[in-house]
Amino acid sequence: MAGIIGVYAFDKIWNISKFLYYGLIGLQNRGYSYSGMSILKENFQLITNEGAPEDIELPQNIEGWAGIGYTGTKIGYPIITDFGTLVVDGIIKGDLNEIAKGLYKDPENTLKEINGVFSLIFLTKDGKMMGYRDSYGIKPLEIGGFGFDLAILSSETSGITVIGGEFRREIKPGEAVFIDTYEISYSQINENRHNYCAIDLVYQSRIDSFVFSKNIYEVRVKIGEQLAEEKKIDADVVIGVPDTAIPFAIGYSKKSGIPYDLGFTRTGSPIRTMLASDDFLKIIGVQLKLNPIKYVVKGKRVILIDDSMVTGRTLKNTVFALRSLGAKEVHVLIGSPKLISKCPYGMEVPEEKDLIAANLSEEEIAKVIGADSIYWLSLEGLYKVLGKSICVGCMTRNYPKVI
């Protein structure tokens, strides 16, 4: 998983380095094991970091009027070639140096021939920028601006709005955008097959973002309401795992009439346990991210909502923590269908042998995590909220045949 961003000033008097840096921080929810930036002035300046964007040390004298950036779970720093610099979110077939050469010399025909599941941003050596999404659109790409001075490409709109920019629109599947000093133009290169990633909508994206032209907060509130329609539970309070699942809990509360309350407080910077690189960090991440508030749960029948369930370790520790603070009952609801298969397109879903829902029954899972009951959103319920133009391969084992 990755977040990519491009910032382009129409006047070369601008220094966009800080805009790029803070925009990249706005995308680190998409992965933060590796990050990097490439900034153009007279030549490209490359800065890389083994860690989150917020840990990048910007040189005091760095300047440039255009640049691109990357943050992700795998090494994917901007690649500098003889023709420009390139960042990719997803899986792309072919040699990236040759692809950069093609994008520079004949972009439209090159984009017609590239195979994969990806979004990309390319900044040429002579200062032109382009963005593109493959025709299935599994990976997002949005465009916005900072007044009339800057154009901003970003995996999700948080990378645009955190630097004061305004979201304009989604780059459509199969569409390219071309940016130079004088204009922004669009071209539908390949067919729009729109198979948006369901996990991006229910888990990956920030709740203040628009992705795939959808308001993430609104989507998750509606999923919570759908959960309330599907699974009625006699309980005293509804809480959500921060930050992604809080809108689910709010939606469930609105529909069911069961009060919502803030169930957890956080210590330090957020750690996304699904993205953590080792088991120790996952355990510590749970404690830092999910420190329960005793007043909210003691003596109560608690509905605990999370966005997804992968191995079950996080929820097991969370349920234990709630019970240790006096929760009378803990009923777990999941705001997505069961994850039963690995994603071949770059989303961090583990092998099937590690996915708890692929290997145990619901009764067994409830027992393993210590919950009184557990329920997953139905596939039909997900379709009701999101429509059917989504990739749900990790939930059904049926994938779009795109590679």
Automatic annotation (TrEMBL):
Binds 1 Mg(2+) ion per subunit. Binds 1 [4Fe-4S] cluster per subunit. Mg(2+) binds at T244, D306, D307. One of its GO terms (molecular function) is metal ion binding. InterPro entries: GATase_2_dom, Ntn_hydrolases_N, PRTase-like, PRTase_dom, PurF, Rhodanese-like_dom. Its EC number is 2.4.2.14. Residues 2-182 form the Glutamine amidotransferase type-2 domain. It comes from the Archaea. Residues 298-349 form the Rhodanese domain. It is an enzyme of class 2 (transferase). [4Fe-4S] cluster binds at C197, C343, C391, C394. It catalyses: 5-phospho-beta-D-ribosylamine + L-glutamate + diphosphate = 5-phospho-alpha-D-ribose 1-diphosphate + L-glutamine + H2O. Pathway: Purine metabolism; IMP biosynthesis via de novo pathway; N(1)-(5-phospho-D-ribosyl)glycinamide from 5-phospho-alpha-D-ribose 1-diphosphate: step 1/2. Its cofactor is Mg(2+); [4Fe-4S] cluster. In the C-terminal section; belongs to the purine/pyrimidine phosphoribosyltransferase family. This is Amidophosphoribosyltransferase.
